[in-house]
Amino acid sequence: MKKKIAIITGASSGLGQEFAFQLDGLMGGSLDEIWLIARRRERLEELSKVLDAPTRIFSMDVTDERDMDAFRETLAAEAVSVRILVNCAGYGLMGRFDGIPVDEQLGMLEVNGKALIRMTYECIPYMCKNGRIIQLASSAAFVPQKNFAVYAAAKSCVLSFSRALREELKEKAIWVTAVCPGPVETEFFDIAEKYASTLAVKKLVMVSPQRVIRDALRDSYHKKAVSVCSLPMKVFRILTKIIPHGWFLSVMGLVK
Ligand SMILES: NC(=O)c1ccc[n+]([C@@H]2O[C@H](COP(=O)([O-])OP(=O)(O)OC[C@H]3O[C@@H](n4cnc5c(N)ncnc54)[C@H](OP(=O)(O)O)[C@@H]3O)[C@@H](O)[C@H]2O)c1
Question: What is the 3-state secondary structure (H, E, C) of 144-196?
Fold first, then answer.
């Protein structure tokens, strides 16, 4: 009998941790294990203590080739059936492109983009029928963002990849949802504000992680391609489809 599992990257904080809480409440009883992934082991151990479902901790860097090879080997060695994969590991840095060290800029592509794609690739062979893949993109994926250029580019890669993959995996009855929140109250901003502070307007539309994840799980359940939480972000998304992006960039350049 295959072990029924959920896999969550970025589970040590913020949205990943909230996914663990809510998945535990919604489907913990029907899962044999929740696999929690992040670099900070002690955080994962604390989380594990408060979840009802049994957990397995993977203290690893999703950008590290050897860590990912070891994870792939574990997947192959265990008889698992992946019910849900949630790719939450990520970070963003605000500020001018030429004012942030290039390795930190490239790191955003590595974690948000490349590692998410690799994790998805490794898990697909073990996904069950009617399984779910939830990818953390962002509302920054909808339009290029001045002073958040690489992050927005990385998230636009996640959104595009997830939508295409969704079409490919339909025939296997695996359903992919890209989650595109606006600003969410998490530790994300502790890192994001290392070189520049957040626009005041973003703080005005900030939402709780609980709300984002509640909507994301509901949208994933309903097999939606994209999950956008909160009215301002839904309106923002519509505007980015109507207004030419060049105009958008000019107007957003004036916003404080
Ligand atoms: N908060 C927002 O406003 C917002 C809005 C839209 C989208 N998002 C996206 O949502 C996702 C989660 O963000 P969050 O708000 O929950 O931020 P967060 O609280 O800072 O959590 C980020 C998570 O990613 C993990 N992580 C980062 N680099 C990693 C690596 N190399 N290997 C393994 N794990 C790594 C961190 O764990 P360790 O440090 O322990 O490794 C942490 O668990 C990100 O993809 C972010 O871009 C956030």
Answer: CCCCCHHHHHHHHHHHHHHHHHHHHHHHHCCEEEEECCCCECCCHHHHHCCCC
